[in-house]
Every structure is written in C-alpha cells, then in structure tokens.
Amino acid sequence: MSVRTNRPRRRLLTSMAAVFAAGAFVVGCTSNEPEEEEAPAAETGGGDDAGAGSGNDEPGETVVIGFSGPEADHGWLAAVNDSAIAEAESYEDVELRTAEGTNDANLQISQIETFINEGVDAIVLLPTDGAQLTEVAIRAMEAGIPVVNVDREFSSPFAARATILGDNHGMGISAGTYACQLIEDNDIQDPVIAEIAGIDALPLTQDRSAGFAEALEACGQTVDNRVAAEFTVESGEEQAANLLQAAPQIDIIWNHDDDQGVGVKQAFDNAGRDEFFFIGGAGSSNAMQWIQDGEMEATILYPPTQAADGIRLARLIAQNKGMSDLVQVEVPRRIVLNAPVVNADNVEDYLHLGFDS
C-alpha cells in the first residue's frame, strides 16, 4: 500500500523559509567568527564591472581548480560530486582537477597538500570533517590559493575565502512551518506529529530537529514520536517500522533524509499505513516522483548543487570577478542556500535537482 495525500491542501508559497532567514543560524559557526553578510547564490556571476548584465559567463583567463569531496556513498553526496564536475565542464576556461572521493580525513588532507604543491588557482573542498581539514585549508590560503568551503564548515574563519552552505536549521523551519499549515488547512485536532531524524550525533541532524521544533512551537505543537536512523535505506526501514509500532495513529511524519526515505516508505507500505501526511528531506528523484504520484506530501530541498555553486564561486574569485546581481564588487564570504518546500504545486520546477538514491 502506498502513502497517499488524500486530504485537501491549500497552495503554499515555496519560499516560506525566507520568512525565518533573518533568524536562521548556520551549522558549525564559531563564536569568534566575524559576522558576514549572507547573499543568495546567483544563477550567473558578475564581471569586473559589478553590475547586473555583466558577462561573467564569457570565457576569461583559464583557471585550475582542485576539487575534493567525500566518498559518494550516499545519493546526495554522489549528486554533489557529479554537479561539481558538470559545472566545471560547462566552462572552457576552467581546468578541474578532481581528487578521489574519500571518507578518510588524512587522505583528504594529503589531497589538498597535493593541490597546494601543484599551485592550483583555487580549491573547492567539501571536507569529510570540517575541523580536521581546517589546518590544511589555512595552509592553502596562506599559499595564496583561495579555498571555497562547501557544506561542512571549517573551524576557523581564516581557512576559506568563501563558504557556501545548505540550511539545515532552515530545513527544519520549512518542514515545521509546512506541518503547521497542513494542520490549519485540514482542521486537524490534537495532531500526532512524528519525526524520523538522521544520525543524532551530527550537528546537521541536531539543527534540523531544532528548526522543526521551533516552527512547531510557533503553532502550539510538539513532536509526539521521534526516532533516529543513519541516512541509509536499511536504517530508515527499521526505524520507521519501530515508529509505526509505537504510534497506532499519526497525522504528520517528517523524515529528514530522502535517501533513508526509500526504506521509510517501504516500512509504510509493509505496514499498510497511509493515514498521515508524509514530508521528506533533501529532494531525491524518488521523493519528487512520489509527490507527483500522490504518495508523498512534500520534501524540503537541501540543494545538491552546493559544490557546483562552489565551482562557480572559485572561478569568479580566481578571475578577480564579482557577482552580477550584487552591488558589492567581490564574491561574498558566506552564502547560505534556501530550503524551500517542494510539493505538488511546484515539483516540476525542481525535478532537474532531483538525485538518485
């Protein structure tokens, strides 16, 4: 049996998370970090004349960019790596040197040291562990090689020229705000809300859960049942089955991760449970297909394009360009991407961002 969205819905703006942007915080920020202005990622950058309409996509001086990311053992990570490579290939003035994906921090450190020794023009780095890669990133910066930090933040502001992040706290805010809207639209009395988190020890999971709880609190609700999985299909199925056994009636379930959501959905089908609104997280192709088929209410996007955006920023920085949609003449130091709600109203706009689980 499939989970179905059989209650009426009201169209919701996908940019609801923007309401909370002013208060959102970013994973991994350190208290001694200087405050930086956040700016939206531009579709195209800006040229030497920092005005809209400048020709940043026009070929410029060829730059060599080193890219290092974790092992693609998760659908989202594979999409991150693939999007970075594809973005680099779209520019004739970018030579990309890609290190083999690894979950070994020491190996990744040696990869960055190789980039430093080769004298690349910029480095785009999604670290296995931000703290462990901080020192080598600082060495790259001291060698005059700008580093673009992606997704997992370094522990020093001196380790990166620019940082581009997804918004984990914002994901929770979006999911909770959407849940509140569903409760209001469907006049659900005393709703039972469940949460299937990822790995609880990770700051990203803690931030997603914190945002979800904060948004629910705004409409007088709390999480009634919660389990934590491990971002895998197997753990998703196991923990979702445990959740269903513990809660005979549920109105809304938010699952943090669409990769583990494959197992979560299987557990729903195995139990024959379809009485709830099912909200996912990250934006996999599976989730978007389920939304189109009426088997899932929504998913909260965690952009898999972060490293691709990192490639664009590295190119601009290495070519001494700015961003065309900003008056500021230089690339910002920090960019936090939005975490929009993707539902039946707008799923076609986001299909191209879906990744295979």
Short description:
The chain has ten helices and twelve strands. With 357 residues, it is α/β, with parallel strands linked by helices.
Report on this model:
This protein has ten helices and twelve strands. The protein is an alpha/beta fold. The longest helix has 18 residues, at 168-185. The radius of gyration is 21 Å and the shape is elongated. 52% of the residues are buried. The model is unreliable at 1-53 (pLDDT under 50).
Helix and strand arrangement:
Blueprint: E1 63-68, H1 75-89, E2 94-98, H2 105-118, E3 122-125, H3 130-142, E4 147-150, E5 162-165, H4 168-185, E6 193-197, H5 203-218, E7 225-228, H6 233-246, E8 252-255, H7 258-271, E9 277-282, H8 285-292, E10 298-301, H9 306-318, E11 334-336, E12 341-343, H10 347-350
Parallel strand pairs: 1-2, 1-3, 3-4, 4-5, 5-11, 6-7, 6-8, 8-9, 9-10
Antiparallel strand pairs: 10-12
Helix pairs in contact: 1-9, 2-3, 4-5, 6-7
The CATH topology of the largest domain, please? Answer: Rossmann fold
Major β-sheet annotation = 6 strands, parallel
**Which assembly state applies to the chains in this document?**
single chain
What overall form do the CA principal axes indicate?
A: elongated
Q: Tell me what the CATH architecture of the largest domain is.
A: 3-Layer(aba) Sandwich
How do the strands line up in the largest sheet?
2-1-3-4-5-11
- Cα-based radius of gyration, to the nearest Å: 21 Å
CATH class of the largest domain: Alpha Beta
The beta-strand count equals 12
Head-to-tail CA distance between termini: 21 Å
Secondary structure class reads alpha/beta
Unreliable stretches covering 5 or more consecutive residues: 1-53
